[in-house]
Amino acid sequence: MPDYFYSLVDSTPILLKQLTVCSFEVISESEKINGRSISEYIRDYLTLDIDINRLFPSGFSEHYPELWKLLSGYFSLRILRQDFFETLITFMCAQGIGMHLIRKQVTMLCHTFGEKRSILFNGKSITLYSFPTPLSLAEADIVMLSRCTNNNRIRATNISRAARSFMDGALDPELLRNPHLPLPELRSMLCRNPGIGYKIADCIALFGLGRFDAFPVDTHVKQYLAYWFHSSNALKPLSPVRYLELDCEARTILNPDMAGYAGHLLFHCWRREIKKLRTF
Fold it and tell me: How far is CA 122 from CA 1, 107, 117, in A?
């Protein structure tokens, strides 16, 4: 289905097509998503309320003029405000592997444990799968679940435990979404769950809890911190202590409350403009 992105959201089929940087065509059989008007939901989901000018401190463009030229082509890139549970499980699938395998695992989870829907659009049949419910993953047979996690039974067990923690309130998104909760405390609460370390916790916070101050550090982030910002720490092996040091360092370069959002633009700019990577 060219030009359209499509998915099931709250059991509702949604087709989305970008028209301009900030305008979209949305096709749905319902006038509301999760109890909100479609326009309100999409604006929030695509973070169209975020002013890109807030991402970088005053004087950043003058201090890093060559980087700014490269980065200017990425200002239309948006972080999504994704569902907490989907983000939690997706990033638990992401530990230590590439995007191809991550996509494969999430697709298998949806096909195996999600809801299947078929719709007709422009005379063509489209098959959609919802993300699995917490109950379906909490009660899943571990052997069957491990088939969706690259045969990693430990990962499957951790996912099942996380689903149960979500259901019994130990992983409460309303508590975790509290904007006054200090980021180190939020990270610590997420890391209590097996299979979640600092980076995965920060990814969950950034993409699933709207904590745009969360700054996940991976290989690409280390590389651009060293290359563009001359961080000597970024040249050293990544340990838990160094992870937190790089996190603090990034906040001296970027606006602290939007460090993760800005870091995401830098991440994609680095991969495409410097590393010349075209696919994930």
Answer: 10, 25, 17
CA distance 3 to 9: 19
pLDDT in tens, 21-46: 778 899 888 888 888 998 899 899 99
Residue 226 tokens, joined: 């060293």
CB atoms within 10 A of CB 147: 16
Which residue's structure tokens are 């067990």?
157
| Alpha-carbon span 59 to 189, nearest angstrom | 35
**Which architecture characterizes domain 84-208 according to CATH?**
Orthogonal Bundle (1.10)
User: What is the CATH architecture of 52-79+212-280?
Assistant: Orthogonal Bundle (1.10)
Contact 149, 105 (CB under 8 A): yes
pTM across the whole model: 0.94
Distance CA 69, CA 62 (A): 11
Q: What is the pLDDT of residues 175-228, one digit of tens each?
A: 999 999 999 999 999 999 999 999 999 999 999 999 999 999 999 999 999 999
Q: What are the residue ranges spanned by the domains of the chain?
A: 1-49, 52-79+212-280, 84-208
